[in-house]
């Protein structure tokens, strides 16, 4: 049995990926969303500051519109995201209301990094939302306006990196990344049966990058590489990140009570 970790976190960012929110049959996983609402509402009621970064706009939109394969055309992806985002927020709204919480939708673009005025505006919004007693900000990329071509780079690229940027911005103590894998493995566990779950990572070195392998699911854009990029940003700012499986969001309670869940990225190994 591994030692307990010392995790002290008053301000927490939780990121949930499409693969955790959407079932294999393209239906939204309401059980996960309800549990997540319960856990985050309890943390907020305990006096913690909580931000949720949620993917799923395109995945949910595909379900609503009855589309099987993620569209290739960017404008089509944007339209699907517009439909899915509305549905997703409605579902979050209902789930959080059960616990007396409101949600605040924050759709952001890379402009918040490049333009000081946008940065200030988004910081002010975060500050106000975080100071509200019964409100949880839910962040996603503003998919209908972001592009990543020619000289326009308003896109973060993926929500793994977006969640790390948000963690930096709001100066959170911890980023909890809920995914469809139990943590970071020494090799792809689907291909290498004796791949080992790594308990803690202090540096993103070439061996770790090589172990990360390929891409994400048919609905999302992630995969291990984007998670490592996020971790790199977290370590650079001397923050901490736990990567773990989000199938039961109550795992967040275990993480905060110091149980050695998933992989902890930290500069201060414990
Ligand atoms: N913003 C995209 C969505 O909500 C997700 C991007 C990602 O999964 O990284 O579908």
Tell me the β content. Answer: 15-25%
Biggest sheet, strands in spatial order? Answer: 3-4-2-1-7-9-10-8
Count up the helices.
Answer: 10
SSE arrangement, N to C? EHHEHHEHHEEEHEEHHEHE
Walkthrough of the structure:
It holds the Pfam family AA_kinase. One of its GO terms (cellular component) is cytosol. There is one protein chain. The protein is an alpha/beta fold. It has one domain (11-265): Acetylglutamate kinase-like (Carbamate kinase). It contains ten helices and ten strands. The protein has helices spanning 18-21, 30-45, 57-65, 74-97, 111-114, 116-131, 159-169, 206-212, 224-236, 251-256, and strands at 11-16, 49-54, 102-108, 135-141, 148-149, 152-153, 174-179, 200-201, 240-245, 263-265. The strands form two sheets. An eight-stranded mixed beta sheet has the order 3-4-2-1-7-9-10-8, sandwiched between helices. Strands 5-6 form a two-stranded antiparallel ribbon. Helix 2 crosses helix 4 (74-97), helix 3 packs across helix 4 and helix 7 packs parallel to helix 9. It is globular, with a radius of gyration of 18 Å. The protein starts with 10 loop residues before the first strand and ends in a 5-residue tail after the last strand. The mean pLDDT is 90. Bound molecules: glutamic acid. Glutamic acid binds next to helix 3 and strand 4.
């Amino acid at each position: 049995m591994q030692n307990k970790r010392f995790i002290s976190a008053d301000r927490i960012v939780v990121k949930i990926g499409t693969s955790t929110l959407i079932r294999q049959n393209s239906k939204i996983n309401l059980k996960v969303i309800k549990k997540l609402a319960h856990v985050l509402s309890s943390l907020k009621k305990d006096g913690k500051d909580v931000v949720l970064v949620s993917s799923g706009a395109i995945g949910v939109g595909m379900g609503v519109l009855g589309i099987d394969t993620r569209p290739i055309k960017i404008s089509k992806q944007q339209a699907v995201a517009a439909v899915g985002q509305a549905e997703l927020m409605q579902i979050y709204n209902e789930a959080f209301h059960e616990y007396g919480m409101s949600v605040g939708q924050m759709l952001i673009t890379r402009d918040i990094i490049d333009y000081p005025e946008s940065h200030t505006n988004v910081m002010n919004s975060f500050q106000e939302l975080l100071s509200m007693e019964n409100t949880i900000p839910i962040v996603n990329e503003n998919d209908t306006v972001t592009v990543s071509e020619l000289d326009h780079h308003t896109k973060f690229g993926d929500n793994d990196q977006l969640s790390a940027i948000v963690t930096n911005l709001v100066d959170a103590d911890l980023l909890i990344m809920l995914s469809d894998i139990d943590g970071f493995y020494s090799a792809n566990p689907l291909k290498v049966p004796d791949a080992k779950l790594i308990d803690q990572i202090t540096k993103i070195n070439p061996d770790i990058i090589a172990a990360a392998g390929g891409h994400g699911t048919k609905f999302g854009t992630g995969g291990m590489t984007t998670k490592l990029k996020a971790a790199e940003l977290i370590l650079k700012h001397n923050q901490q990140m736990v990567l773990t499986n989000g199938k039961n969001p109550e795992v967040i309670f275990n993480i905060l009570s110091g149980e050695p869940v998933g992989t902890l990225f930290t500069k201060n190994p414990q």
